[in-house]
């Protein structure tokens, strides 16, 4: 059976700013420049990369694309009415903002547990991603008692504390993927298997917008996929098309 494979490599971000910030004044300018170059190289290898499309006699312009990164915030907070706010940034660019609520308001310490979904299409290629959590001062409206933490799909953050937050940690959870393209199939039906190496993560079937001999649109989404490197096998009748 014929097989064609489309692979997807997770969008991820490396907290290079933190590394550079640890360098002291005793480090030479040359070392600092080299450290920055190393961070940019690592970041560019793992942040959003373009996905090539693949075609054959039954599938046309098939592309497996990353849609979003999913993180979870856990810890405790002592806040007015239990409310905190967050801003996700790449450098100075704001990617998204939002808020959450601890289980109880201050002065008690309430539990923090929130899932955050970061859209991939808003991310840049060469800039580390980080999140800021803070309170809004009731009188001035300013951001106060701020915590800044890196976001990366490769590791949990270290636990962070200040007067309003404690044991705060960011955990990478999963990646959302989508499959797009066109198919020319009998009755428009295809089957898929989503794998991490040989491990099957998901399987099922979908239907193009119209059956052969016309080309129908293919659109399928996988949400909350826990593994970060996948391949997808698409099958129609006796012929397998394996996309990597």
Distance between the termini: 16 Å
Structural class: mainly beta
- Percent helix range: under 10%
Mean pLDDT across all amino acids: 76
CA-atom Rg in angstroms: 22 Å
Taken as a percent bin, the fraction of beta residues is over 45%
Poorly predicted tracts of residues: 1-50, 237-244
How many distinct helices? 2
What's the overall geometry? Answer: elongated
The biggest sheet, with number of strands, parallel, antiparallel or mixed sense and barrel status, is: 5 strands, antiparallel
SSE pattern: EHHEEEEEEEEEEEE
Number of strands: 13
Descriptive notes:
It is elongated and about 65 Å long. The longest helix is centred in the N-terminal third of the chain and has 18 residues, at 29-46. The chain contains 2 helices and 13 strands. Helices cover 10% and strands 51% of the residues.
């Amino acid at each position: 059976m014929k097989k064609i494979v489309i692979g997807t490599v997770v969008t991820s971000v490396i907290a290079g700013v933190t590394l550079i910030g640890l360098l002291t004044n005793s480090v030479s300018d040359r070392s600092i420049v080299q450290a920055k170059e190393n961070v940019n190289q690592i970041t560019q290898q793992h942040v959003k990369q373009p996905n090539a499309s693949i075609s054959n006699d039954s599938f046309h312009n098939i592309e497996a694309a990353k849609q979003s990164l999913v993180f979870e915030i856990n810890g405790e907070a002592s806040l007015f009415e239990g409310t905190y706010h967050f801003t996700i940034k790449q450098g100075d660019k704001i990617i998204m903002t939002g808020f959450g609520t601890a289980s109880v308001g201050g002065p008690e310490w309430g539990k923090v547990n929130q899932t955050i979904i970061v859209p991939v299409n808003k991310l840049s290629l060469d800039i580390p991603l980080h999140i800021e959590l803070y309170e809004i001062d009731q009188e001035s409206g300013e951001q106060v008692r701020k915590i800044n933490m890196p976001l990366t799909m490769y590791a949990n953050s270290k636990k962070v504390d200040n007067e309003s937050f404690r044991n705060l940690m960011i955990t990478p959870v999963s990646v959302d993927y989508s499959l797009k393209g066109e198919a020319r199939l009998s009755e428009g039906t295809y089957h898929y298997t989503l794998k991490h190496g040989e491990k099957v993560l998901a399987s099922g079937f979908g239907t193009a917008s119209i059956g052969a001999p016309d080309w129908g649109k293919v659109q399928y989404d996988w949400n909350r996929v826990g593994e970060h490197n996948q391949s997808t096998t698409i099958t129609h009748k006796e012929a397998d098309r394996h996309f990597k």
